[in-house]
Design a protein that fits this description.
With about 60 residues, the chain is mostly beta strands. It has no helices and four strands. It has one domain. Helix content is about 0%, strand content about 55%. Strands 3-2-1-4 form a four-stranded antiparallel sheet, with no helix packed on it. A hairpin with a 3-residue loop joins strand 1 and strand 2. It starts with a strand and ends with a strand.
């Protein structure tokens, strides 16, 4: 049996090479990641998104 959670993060800060995203708290659900760092080169196509979603799945 596997379980899956989708978390949403919003842009918090830009550094030289990365974007730091912070997890958006939802009522009744504890934070899972708190923060995530994504390399700027990931968004080569242009605009850096204000929000991202990450899917976490485990068995």
């Amino acid at each position: 049996m596997s379980d899956k959670r989708i978390i949403t993060l919003e842009k918090e800060k830009e550094t030289k090479n990365t974007i730091r995203y912070k997890e958006i708290e939802t009522e009744g659900s504890p934070l899972i990641m708190k923060t995530a760092y994504i390399q700027k080169e990931t968004f080569k196509q242009g605009k850096i998104p204000e929000k991202i979603s990450i899917t976490i799945e485990w068995e």
